[in-house]
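F.,

This is the one I mentioned.
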C-alpha cells in the first residue's frame, strides 16, 4: 500500500524525517482550508493579535511604547484583521495571520530602531522613538539567552533530535545520558510494548531494562521549574536591553535651519532599508530576523518575503493617498477658477 501513496503521504508516515520551519504553518493552513470547505463551512477565528503582539515584543526585548501602537495603526491602515485564509493564495505568505503580525512588527522596528548607524533626531522628547536601541548589546544578550540551555556542555532542549551518527562519538558521558533519557521519554513506551498483542516478549524486556538504576527516569527539572527559569532569563534580558537604550538628540523644527553642518536633519523613518534576501542583512538585522522568525516557527527568508509584501501594500496605499490629494487639489483649483469666471 505504501508504494501506491503519493510522496506527501509517504513523508507523513516517515518517522525519520525531522520537522522543519514552515511545517507548522503549512499544517495549520491546510486544516483551516479543510474546515472552510463547502461541506463543512467552519470558519477559523482570528488570532488574538493584541496579546500575541505583546508577547512578541516581550520575547524580543523591544521597547513597547512606540512599537505596539505603530503595529496597531499600520494594521488598521491596511484593514488587516488577522484571520485565516478561506482559499489558498500561492506565494503570498503575508496573508497568514501570525506571519503578517510579525512582519508588521519588523516594519515598525525598522522605522523606529533601524539596524544602521545613521543618526536620526526626533522633533521633541514626546515623540515616539526618542530612545534608540543598542543593537550590538542586544545581539550579545540574545546569543547568551539562546545558549543558556547548552551551558556546562549540555545538549540543550530541542537539540537532541539534531544529533547525527557521526556526532555521537564526540559526546561526553553526561551528553550521552541526556540523549538516552530524551530518547526513552520520547520513543520508548515499555507498558505499551508489554500489553501490545504483538509486542516484545516480557523475557526480552527484562533482559534489557530501560531507565536508570533504581527506577524509571525522572526529569531533573520539572516543567514548572523550566517555565520559571525561562521567565527569569527573559526578565534579565529585558532589563539589560532597557538599560542599554540611548537617548536621541532632539532637533526642533525651528532649529533645523540653524544647524551649521549643511546636511539635512534625518528624522525617524528616513533612509528606510528594504531587504530582499537574507544575504543582504547585516549582523544585527540577521540576528533580529532569525529571532523573530523563530518565534513563529518559520524561516528568515519567509519572514523577509512577508515583510516585502506588506511594504508593497504600504507603498501602494501611499501612492493612492497622494493621487487622491492631487485630484482633490485639482478639483479645488478648478472650482476656484469657475468662481472667478462667474464673478
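My design for it:
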Amino acid at each position: 500500500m505504501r508504494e501506491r501513496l503519493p510522496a506527501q503521504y509517504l513523508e507523513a508516515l516517515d518517522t525519520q524525517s525531522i520537522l522543519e520551519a514552515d511545517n507548522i504553518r503549512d499544517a495549520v493552513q491546510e486544516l483551516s482550508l479543510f474546515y472552510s470547505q463547502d461541506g463543512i463551512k467552519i470558519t477559523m477565528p482570528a488570532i488574538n493579535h493584541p496579546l500575541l503582539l505583546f508577547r512578541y515584543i516581550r520575547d524580543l526585548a523591544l521597547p513597547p511604547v512606540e512599537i505596539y501602537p505603530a503595529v496597531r495603526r499600520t494594521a488598521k491602515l491596511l484593514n488587516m484583521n488577522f484571520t485565516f485564509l478561506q482559499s489558498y493564495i500561492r506565494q503570498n505568505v503575508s496573508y497568514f495571520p501570525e506571519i503578517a503580525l510579525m512582519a508588521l512588527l519588523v516594519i515598525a522596528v525598522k522605522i523606529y530602531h533601524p539596524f544602521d548607524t545613521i543618526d536620526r533626531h526626533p522633533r521633541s522628547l514626546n515623540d515616539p522613538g526618542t530612545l534608540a536601541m543598542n543593537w550590538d548589546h542586544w545581539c550579545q544578550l540574545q546569543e547568551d539567552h539562546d545558549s543558556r540551555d547548552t551551558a556546562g556542555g549540555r545538549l540543550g532542549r530541542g537539540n537532541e533530535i539534531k544529533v547525527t551518527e557521526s556526532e555521537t562519538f564526540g559526546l561526553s558521558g553526561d551528553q550521552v545520558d541526556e540523549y538516552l533519557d530524551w530518547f526513552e521519554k520520547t520513543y520508548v513506551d515499555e507498558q505499551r510494548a508489554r500489553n501490545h498483542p504483538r509486542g516484545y516478549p516480557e523475557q526480552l524486556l527484562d533482559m534489557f531494562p530501560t531507565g536508570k538504576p533504581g527506577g524509571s527516569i525522572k526529569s531533573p527539572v520539572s516543567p514548572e521549574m523550566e517555565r520559571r527559569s525561562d521567565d527569569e532569563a527573559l526578565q534579565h534580558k529585558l532589563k539589560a536591553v532597557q538599560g542599554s537604550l540611548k537617548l536621541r538628540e532632539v532637533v526642533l523644527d525651528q532649529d533645523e535651519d540653524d544647524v551649521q553642518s549643511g546636511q539635512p536633519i534625518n528624522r525617524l523613518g528616513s533612509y528606510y532599508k528594504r531587504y530582499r534576501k537574507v544575504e543582504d542583512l547585516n549582523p544585527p538585522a540577521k540576528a533580529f530576523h532569525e529571532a523573530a522568525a523563530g518565534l513563529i516557527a518559520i524561516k528568515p527568508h519567509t519572514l523577509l518575503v512577508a515583510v516585502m509584501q506588506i511594504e508593497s501594500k504600504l507603498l501602494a496605499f501611499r501612492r493612492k493617498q497622494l493621487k487622491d490629494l492631487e485630484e482633490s487639489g485639482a478639483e479645488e483649483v478648478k472650482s476656484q477658477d469657475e468662481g472667478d469666471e462667474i464673478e
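Strands lie at 131-132, 246-247.

Talk soon.
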